[in-house]
Q: What sequence folds into this?
């Protein structure tokens, strides 16, 4: 089996995969459907293999069964506690039973509880640093590189004012505790909507460029790798 | 009673992670130091093992759905068979290659199944969106209002500023892109995110305290 050049066959098969997926641009067809299902199958299998080889075996089964022990170490029975977790996880399979599917809700509840508890960590760990960083000084100094004397940095001040104004206008747009028809609020809200449109445009542009990068990568693969692989497989 | 049990498990499951964040690392109680979070790795492994078991459930569901299709000979059964075959071949080859010390099988898994099929299929699948975005852009970027004009203008600035050709259009293109991202896009996104984060926390608390009844079988 090792005599087979899987690099070459991988490139050849990859080219057919790309062509089949792009054939969807013409219309939905059986080649696209076929390779779409191949993708789901391979991706599922890959997820299983990587989970087992990167977590289940090294972090669960090896320590729990004492297979990672050095000659001078003795087995500690408490390390088998992960089998209790596995037994709890198995309760999820009651989802397949019509009569006892409520048992699976215990594990789902466990997941929701953990997610709820961790949300505090995520909120306070992510929210407050961002909040503190967002309220930037409207009077900012920089130091003269020659003399070291402080001076007002007008560019940074302008940027910070713009930053604050943009953020407050957008927040005003989503703030419904007072009527948006009041003077000042109405204008800030309208400005917030416009600034969000600029942001959505920027996000759209970034996403298009990311997808284009993938497309260019595929085209390069087809033109360089696949073309050469066909040459070496069928034409020499 | 069943619902109460589920609610109790949900509440207790969140307590550890809630308390872990608010308590200091070294806790001094009755003359003794307790290190809360000392067994953090063990707790996380415990949780991971619980949810790793769901992989089997996913596979069972796939086999049930496509197996039924194959046995009944329903339209598209060939695709279902291909999906299951691809999954089984990948699992067998991957396990054999990684645990069976077989270089040939490891090469088949890494270079053909992963590098050849999965890598190319996923890249092609996601790059397909570039075409759909182009058609969506045609619809959404027609300048029918001031807002649409702003959106189109911002998207153009970002796209032109990101490509090497943009530098030929104007030397300021990359700076204009960076300026838009830094001083307009970032604060506006943060304005949206702050609201979303508060709402997310409120939702998480509701789930943790089992105030969201739909997760526990509705009113049953």
A:
């Amino acid at each position: 089996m090792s005599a087979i050049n899987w690099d070459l066959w991988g490139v050849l098969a990859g080219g057919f995969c790309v062509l089949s997926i792009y054939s969807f641009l013409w219309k939905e067809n059986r080649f696209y459907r076929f390779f779409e299902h191949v993708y789901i199958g391979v991706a599922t299998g890959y997820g299983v293999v990587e989970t087992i080889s990167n977590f289940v075996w090294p972090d669960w089964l090896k320590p729990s069964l004492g297979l990672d022990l050095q000659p001078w170490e003795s087995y500690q029975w408490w390390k088998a506690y992960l089998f209790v977790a596995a037994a709890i996880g198995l309760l999820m399979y009651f989802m397949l039973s019509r009569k006892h599917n409520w048992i699976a809700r215990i594990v789902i509840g466990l997941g929701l509880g953990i997610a709820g508890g961790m949300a505090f960590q995520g909120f306070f760990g992510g929210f407050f640093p961002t909040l503190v960083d967002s309220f930037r000084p409207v009077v900012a100094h920089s130091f003269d590189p020659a003399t070291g004397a402080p001076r007002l940095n007008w560019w940074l001040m302008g940027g910070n004012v713009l930053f604050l104004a943009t953020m407050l206008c957008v927040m005003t747009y989503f703030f419904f505790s007072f009527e948006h028809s009041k003077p000042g609020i109405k204008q800030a809200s309208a400005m917030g909507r416009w600034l969000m449109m600029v942001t959505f445009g920027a996000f759209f542009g970034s996403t298009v460029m990311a997808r284009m990068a993938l497309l260019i990568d595929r085209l390069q693969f087809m033109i360089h790798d696949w073309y050469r692989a066909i040459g070496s497989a069928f034409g020499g | 009673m069943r619902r109460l049990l589920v609610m109790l498990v949900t509440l207790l499951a969140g307590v550890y992670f809630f308390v872990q964040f608010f308590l200091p690392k070294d806790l001094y109680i009755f003359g003794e130091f307790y290190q809360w979070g000392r067994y953090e790795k063990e707790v996380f492994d415990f949780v991971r093992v619980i949810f790793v078991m769901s992989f089997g459930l996913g596979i069972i569901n796939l086999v049930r759905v496509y197996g039924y299709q194959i046995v009944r000979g329903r339209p598209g059964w060939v695709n279902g068979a291909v999906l299951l075959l691809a999954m089984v071949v990948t699992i067998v080859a991957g396990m054999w290659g990684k645990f069976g010390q077989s270089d040939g099988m490891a090469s088949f898994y890494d270079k053909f199944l992963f590098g050849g099929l999965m890598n190319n299929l996923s890249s092609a699948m996601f790059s397909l969106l570039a075409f759909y975005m182009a058609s969506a852009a045609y619809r959404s970027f027609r300048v029918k209002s001031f807002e649409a004009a702003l959106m189109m203008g911002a998207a153009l600035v970002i796209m032109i500023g990101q490509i090497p050709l943009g530098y030929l259009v104007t030397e300021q293109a990359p700076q204009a892109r960076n300026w838009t991202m830094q001083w307009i896009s970032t604060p506006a996104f943060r304005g949206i995110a702050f609201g979303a984060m508060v709402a997310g926390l409120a939702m998480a608390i509701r789930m943790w305290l089992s105030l969201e009844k739909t997760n526990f079988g509705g009113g049953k």
Summary: The two ends of chain A are 22 Å apart (CA to CA). Chain A is about 70% helix and 5% strand. Chain A touches chain B through 118 residues (CB under 8 Å). The first strand of chain A starts at residue 141 and ends at 143.
